[in-house]
Protein backbone atom coordinates (compact mmCIF):
# COMPACT_ATOMS: atom_id res chain seq x y z
CA UNK A 1 0.00 0.00 0.00
CA UNK A 2 2.80 2.45 0.81
CA UNK A 3 2.82 5.84 2.44
CA UNK A 4 -0.45 7.73 2.29
CA UNK A 5 -1.48 11.29 3.14
CA UNK A 6 -1.61 11.55 6.93
CA UNK A 7 1.11 8.95 7.54
CA UNK A 8 4.29 9.78 9.44
CA UNK A 9 7.52 9.73 7.45
CA UNK A 10 9.40 6.59 8.52
CA UNK A 11 13.02 6.91 9.63
CA UNK A 12 15.49 5.82 6.96
CA UNK A 13 19.19 5.93 6.15
CA UNK A 14 20.64 5.97 2.63
CA UNK A 15 23.80 6.99 0.77
CA UNK A 16 23.84 10.41 -0.92
CA UNK A 17 25.52 11.45 -4.17
CA UNK A 18 28.72 12.30 -2.29
CA UNK A 19 28.92 8.81 -0.79
CA UNK A 20 27.91 10.12 2.64
CA UNK A 21 25.26 8.58 4.88
CA UNK A 22 21.93 10.42 4.83
CA UNK A 23 19.80 10.10 7.96
CA UNK A 24 16.22 11.33 7.70
CA UNK A 25 16.28 12.24 11.42
CA UNK A 26 18.62 15.14 10.56
CA UNK A 27 15.65 16.70 8.74
CA UNK A 28 13.17 16.49 11.62
CA UNK A 29 11.33 19.81 11.85
CA UNK A 30 11.89 20.63 8.18
CA UNK A 31 9.48 20.28 5.26
CA UNK A 32 10.68 17.79 2.66
CA UNK A 33 9.91 17.08 -0.97
CA UNK A 34 11.13 13.56 -1.68
CA UNK A 35 10.77 12.48 -5.26
CA UNK A 36 11.44 9.02 -6.66
CA UNK A 37 12.40 8.76 -10.32
CA UNK A 38 13.44 5.86 -12.58
CA UNK A 39 16.98 6.63 -13.78
CA UNK A 40 19.70 9.29 -13.93
CA UNK A 41 20.38 11.06 -17.21
CA UNK A 42 17.33 9.84 -19.11
CA UNK A 43 15.11 12.29 -20.96
CA UNK A 44 12.10 12.64 -18.62
CA UNK A 45 14.17 12.21 -15.45
CA UNK A 46 16.58 14.93 -16.58
CA UNK A 47 13.71 17.31 -17.39
CA UNK A 48 12.22 16.62 -13.96
CA UNK A 49 15.52 17.10 -12.10
CA UNK A 50 16.26 20.31 -14.00
CA UNK A 51 12.76 21.62 -13.25
CA UNK A 52 13.33 20.99 -9.53
CA UNK A 53 16.70 22.72 -9.94
CA UNK A 54 15.20 25.72 -11.73
CA UNK A 55 12.63 26.19 -8.97
CA UNK A 56 14.83 25.11 -6.09
CA UNK A 57 14.89 28.64 -4.61
CA UNK A 58 11.07 28.60 -4.57
CA UNK A 59 11.17 25.40 -2.53
CA UNK A 60 13.78 26.87 -0.17
CA UNK A 61 11.71 30.05 0.23
CA UNK A 62 8.79 27.86 1.33
CA UNK A 63 11.06 26.17 3.89
CA UNK A 64 11.40 22.85 2.08
CA UNK A 65 14.35 20.70 1.10
CA UNK A 66 14.21 18.70 -2.15
CA UNK A 67 15.62 15.16 -2.25
CA UNK A 68 15.69 12.90 -5.30
CA UNK A 69 15.82 9.09 -5.05
CA UNK A 70 16.56 6.42 -7.65
CA UNK A 71 18.28 3.05 -7.73
CA UNK A 72 21.36 4.51 -9.43
CA UNK A 73 24.69 4.38 -7.60
CA UNK A 74 26.15 7.30 -5.64
CA UNK A 75 28.76 7.65 -8.42
CA UNK A 76 26.04 7.88 -11.09
CA UNK A 77 24.19 10.45 -8.96
CA UNK A 78 27.37 12.49 -8.54
CA UNK A 79 27.89 12.64 -12.33
CA UNK A 80 24.22 13.46 -12.93
CA UNK A 81 24.16 16.20 -10.28
CA UNK A 82 27.41 17.70 -11.53
CA UNK A 83 26.41 17.60 -15.21
CA UNK A 84 23.11 19.43 -14.56
CA UNK A 85 24.23 21.54 -11.55
CA UNK A 86 21.61 20.03 -9.24
CA UNK A 87 21.68 21.89 -5.90
CA UNK A 88 19.78 19.23 -3.94
CA UNK A 89 20.69 15.77 -2.65
CA UNK A 90 20.21 12.60 -4.62
CA UNK A 91 19.97 9.36 -2.66
CA UNK A 92 21.01 5.95 -3.92
CA UNK A 93 18.44 3.21 -3.45
CA UNK A 94 20.31 0.40 -5.20
CA UNK A 95 18.74 -2.25 -2.96
CA UNK A 96 15.25 -0.72 -3.48
CA UNK A 97 14.62 -0.63 0.28
CA UNK A 98 13.41 3.00 0.14
CA UNK A 99 11.06 2.21 -2.75
CA UNK A 100 9.58 -0.61 -0.68
CA UNK A 101 9.46 1.52 2.50
CA UNK A 102 7.56 4.30 0.71
CA UNK A 103 5.51 1.89 -1.43
CA UNK A 104 6.56 3.33 -4.79
CA UNK A 105 4.99 1.18 -7.53
CA UNK A 106 6.43 0.40 -10.94
CA UNK A 107 4.91 2.06 -14.02
CA UNK A 108 1.76 0.67 -15.65
CA UNK A 109 3.65 -1.99 -17.56
CA UNK A 110 5.86 -2.95 -14.61
CA UNK A 111 9.01 -2.24 -16.61
CA UNK A 112 10.20 1.00 -15.03
CA UNK A 113 10.46 2.05 -11.41
CA UNK A 114 7.66 4.49 -10.65
CA UNK A 115 7.81 8.27 -10.39
CA UNK A 116 6.22 9.46 -7.14
CA UNK A 117 6.64 12.70 -5.18
CA UNK A 118 5.97 13.00 -1.45
CA UNK A 119 5.56 16.30 0.38
CA UNK A 120 6.19 16.00 4.11
CA UNK A 121 5.41 18.84 6.53
CA UNK A 122 7.60 20.07 9.41
CA UNK A 123 5.92 17.62 11.79
CA UNK A 124 6.91 14.68 9.58
CA UNK A 125 3.38 14.08 8.25
CA UNK A 126 2.86 13.19 4.59
CA UNK A 127 0.72 15.91 2.98
CA UNK A 128 0.92 14.84 -0.68
CA UNK A 129 1.54 11.63 -2.57
CA UNK A 130 1.65 12.33 -6.31
CA UNK A 131 2.13 9.44 -8.73
CA UNK A 132 2.62 10.27 -12.41
CA UNK A 133 5.14 9.20 -15.04
CA UNK A 134 5.02 12.79 -16.36
CA UNK A 135 8.03 14.53 -14.82
CA UNK A 136 7.38 18.27 -14.83
CA UNK A 137 3.95 18.24 -13.19
CA UNK A 138 5.52 16.94 -9.94
CA UNK A 139 7.17 20.31 -9.34
CA UNK A 140 3.89 22.21 -9.75
CA UNK A 141 1.98 19.83 -7.46
CA UNK A 142 4.67 19.97 -4.75
CA UNK A 143 4.85 23.79 -4.83
CA UNK A 144 1.05 24.07 -4.66
CA UNK A 145 0.98 21.85 -1.59
CA UNK A 146 3.81 23.70 0.15
CA UNK A 147 2.02 27.01 -0.37
CA UNK A 148 -1.03 25.67 1.49
CA UNK A 149 0.93 24.32 4.47
Automatic annotation (TrEMBL):
UniProt-recorded Gene Ontology molecular function terms: thioredoxin-dependent peroxiredoxin activity
CDD domains hit by this protein: PRX_BCP
Enzyme Commission no: 1.11.1.24
Coiled coil: none
Enzyme class, first EC level, given as a word: oxidoreductase
Keyword set, alphabetical order: Antioxidant, Disulfide bond, Oxidoreductase, Peroxidase, Redox-active center
Record-annotated Thioredoxin domain positions: 3-149
Stored InterPro entries: AhpC/TSA, Peroxiredoxin_AhpC-typ, Peroxiredoxin_BCP/PrxQ, Thioredoxin-like_sf, Thioredoxin_domain
Keyword Disulfide bond: yes
Catalytic activity: a hydroperoxide + [thioredoxin]-dithiol = an alcohol + [thioredoxin]-disulfide + H2O
Pfam short name (any one): AhpC-TSA
Domain of life according to the entry: Bacteria
Family as reported in the entry's similarity comment: Belongs to the peroxiredoxin family. BCP/PrxQ subfamily.
Role this protein plays: Thiol-specific peroxidase that catalyzes the reduction of hydrogen peroxide and organic hydroperoxides to water and alcohols, respectively. Plays a role in cell protection against oxidative stress by detoxifying peroxides and as sensor of hydrogen peroxide-mediated signaling events.
Assembly, per entry: Monomer.
Protein known as: thioredoxin-dependent peroxiredoxin
Species the sequence originates in: Flavobacterium sedimenticola
Taxonomy of the source species: Bacteria, Pseudomonadati, Bacteroidota, Flavobacteriia, Flavobacteriales
